[in-house]
Amino acid sequence: MDKNVPKLISIVETAKFYASLCLGTVAFVSVFAFLFLIPFVVDPAISSLMANYETEAVTCVATHHIYAEGLRNCSWASCREGCTSQVTKCHQILVNYSRLPFREYKSKAILDWDVAHTRLLVNAEGCGYPPSVNCTEFAQQYGYESAGTPFPCYYSKVYPDTVVARYSWDDTLRQLILSIAIPNLLFATSIAILSYWYCPGCGRTCNKYMHHFPHVDEEDDDEVY
Questions:
Q1: Are residues 79 and 125 part of one domain?
Q2: CB within 8 A of 47, min separation 6: which ones?
């Protein structure tokens, strides 16, 4: 017997041990990552798709902007930095919007507003985290001195009083698919490999459905007889 065989077996077993450790870690982290993504990505994305926002930007104009402080005065907010913390400082922006596409509004001398004095939200969730959501910049862009200037926005066909400043159907669907597919695929792959390595029944089941070709010795014996 070759002296290098035991050493090779030892290397293979060591590699298998560390690979198993990595796969177990990946499976464990994938579960917690998926649970973390449900309230922050999956649930908001599903809610956004069910709200059926208009995919083409329509025309909005801010009519009222209030900056308030205190829990009592911040019963709602157009923008929140953080989706779980309580709001003690808030910007409240009201808008009028017309279903006229924003790209066509300049051709209209007078706009007929379809919905007046409704709440404007920064996105479908009304909240987010820096740097993607910065409430100070949001207020400067749509409130303060900018009030009265038409800007693109998106309204919900299911809830017409809901208007958001940012929306992309493609990005929302992509985030939903990736947040579901990647953690579950990593978990399933890791568990499948570990099951094949350490579950004898799983290995026999896989081999049962594999096509086995006869060995060369068996073919030679058949020819002799």
A1: yes
A2: 124, 125
